[in-house]
Amino acid sequence: MKKVYIRTFGCQMNVHDSERMLGVLRREGYAPVDAPEEADLIIFNTCSIREKAEQKFYSQLGRTRRLKRDNPALKVAVAGCIAQQQGAGIREKAPYVDYVIGPQNIGRVGDAVLGTEGIFTDDNPELARSDLPAERDRSVKAWINIMYGCNNFCSYCVVPYTRGRERSRPAENILNEVKGLAADGFKEITLLGQNVNSYSGDVSFPELLSRINDIEGIERIRFVTSHPKDLGEGLVRAMRDLDKVCEHIHLPLQSGSDRVLRLMNRKYTFSEYVSKVKMLREAVPDIAITTDIIAGFPSETPDDHKATVSALQEIGFDGIFAFKYSPRPMTRAADMEGQLPDEVKSERLTEILALQDRITEARNKALQNTVQEVLVEGTSGSEPEKMTGRTRTNKIVNIAPSGSVSPGMILKIRILKANRHSLEGEVIDGA
Ligand code: SF4
After folding, report:
1. Which residues contact 46 (CB under 8 A, 6 or more apart)?
2. What is the torsion angle, in degrees rounded to the nearest 10, for the CA atoms of residue 211, residue 214, residue 220 and residue 222?
3. Can you give the pTM of this predicted structure?
4. What is the C-alpha to C-alpha distance for residues 139 and 137, in angstroms, rounded to an integer?
5. What one-character DSSP code corresponds to residue 71?
6. Which domains does the chain have, with CATH numbers?
7. How are beta strands 371-379 and 410-418 bridged, if at all?
8. What is the pLDDT of residues 188-239, one digit of tens each?
9. DSSP run (H or E) holding 18
10. What is the DSSP letter of 234?
11. Which of 29, 186, 298, 335 could form an S-S bond across to 181 if both were Cys, CB 3.0 to 4.6 Å?
12. Beta-carbon neighbour count of residue 92 at 10 Å?
């Protein structure tokens, strides 16, 4: 049995791409190992969203040079967004790399390893129609791609250049995959896409959700990432009416300033965003809303920054992912005037995170003494004597030890304590 070690960087799409590369390699007689030293094949599934992710990857790649010197038969592959972005350039920097495989060509990893070397970065419209096997290392929750690529070209983002044009999978392929997962005992599925609510397969996205909602065995449906411009009444109704669709949406805002939103090419204004939030909260009162924020976008003024701070206060998100603006190759924003000094970006990011921590804590505190439905996922990483799971609003709950709790169970949990990023509770009943 040949051994493969996969190091995954970045987003859920990459995590699931790694699961599928493993699935394809399993057919070629490979089994996963946890350490690069044990592997016959090392794959770096890379992320190019920020400079830091790229630096981290290259420093880890450098370490494989020694491994390869000690084991000349070792094969090294670079996959993911940096592979697509830099292509053959990676082998110029690191000649000990054998394969370069872009996100649209993960299905060709099997062919790749049969050959001695290769660059696989061509556009691949077939990906959306191919049903690649996935080797999932969890048993309760599963990721499923429903579409690939992005047509939005936000001025700071590399994704349209690395993952290509939007392509949606046929609904039937998705439904068959979900039925297979239900038969394997999975309880929760998360539908993946750069703009999952732009799905344009042979049925609309709300209709797809409705058909998945009818599948026996699946208890919860989530989807990520949504684009505010494509959030319509149909999807809001689906979130209100479909019992398995969870009350959480991740809806990136990025900035509270209309001037900056225009420069980002986000295609909505702050007030339009607020009206979508209102529509969601009217239809689904307990809904949790999380978002992404970029601090220090080129030419962002103190007033623009203030607009983002007041946006957080006005909306009251359940949580945010916030980062300093990072200029990326091929993106329009990288060439924009008014690139801000790093200390200004850091200062603004610190203020945003400190404010949001207070908001998140307050929203979690409001859940104390309530009863929440929790899907148990496994043992808590921080407190091994406890089990952990998530509410339908996607909040982490650590459950006081109780002999009969196991992964896959859906339980009624009384929330005893709220922390900044998690809740603590006790079992009061089976769901
Ligand atoms: S919507 Fe914008 S930020 Fe999201 S993947 Fe597409 S280009 Fe990137």
Report:
1. 9, 10, 14, 53, 54, 57, 78, 79, 80, 81, 82, 83
2. 10
3. 0.95
4. 7
5. -
6. 2-125 (3.40.50.12160), 128-365 (3.80.30.20), 371-427 (2.40.50.140)
7. antiparallel
8. 999 999 999 999 999 999 999 999 999 999 999 999 999 999 999 999 999 9
9. helix 12-27
10. H
11. 186
12. 10
Alpha carbons 130 and 118: distance in angstroms, whole number: 21
- CB-based contact 411:431 (threshold 8 Å): yes
Distance 57 CA to ligand 1 centre (A): 22
Residue ranges lining ligand 1, Cβ < 6 Å: 150, 152-154, 157, 159-160, 194-195, 227
With CA atoms as reference, report the closest residue to 196 among 155, 153, 166. Answer: 166
- Tell me the CA–centroid distance for residue 258 and ligand 1, in Å: 17
Rounded alpha-carbon distances, angstroms, from residue 236 to 230, 242, 273, 317, 430: 11, 10, 14, 18, 29
C-alpha 334 – ligand 1 centre gap (Å): 15
Q: How far apart are the first and last CA of the chain?
A: 43
Task: For the chain, give the number of residues.
Answer: 431
- % of the chain surpassing 70 pLDDT: 99
